[in-house]
Amino acid sequence: MFSKACEYGIRSAVYIALQSMEGRRVSVNKIAEEIDSPIAFTAKILQQLSRSKIIHSVKGPTGGFEIERARMDEVKLSMIVHAIDGDEIYVGCGLGLKECNANKPCPLHDKFVDIRNDLRNMLENTSLYELATGLEVGLTYLKR
């Protein structure tokens, strides 16, 4: 459903939030290791998240990535998805057809519109804090 970059972006943000709750900044190498992602690819994703002001990058010997606790409530999954994949998930055809809309619907169009609306609702109402605390109590895992 999400691109690989988006999956890694979500996992990165959750890991950074979890570490930030413990008062730690985390390096790109540690993030890549923890989410099982290539370092260069992870660095590119973190750059996108940082430019979108989802995470904060601190340079220097004690630097790394972090996110303020108050910001964790404000950051919704939809913001991470938008920063990495844009809005394609909300507008693409369920069958991948180029021409699919209300005027020329594919066989799945009407059902897929409902699914997409539910997905948008979930992404817009799920906070980074919610995911990080779920991970903290062992309800989710970062590695496959």
From TrEMBL:
Residues spanning the signal sequence: none
Under the heading InterPro entries, the entry gives:
Tscrpt_reg_Rrf2, WH-like_DNA-bd_sf, WH_DNA-bd_sf
Q: What is this protein called?
A: RrF2 family transcriptional regulator
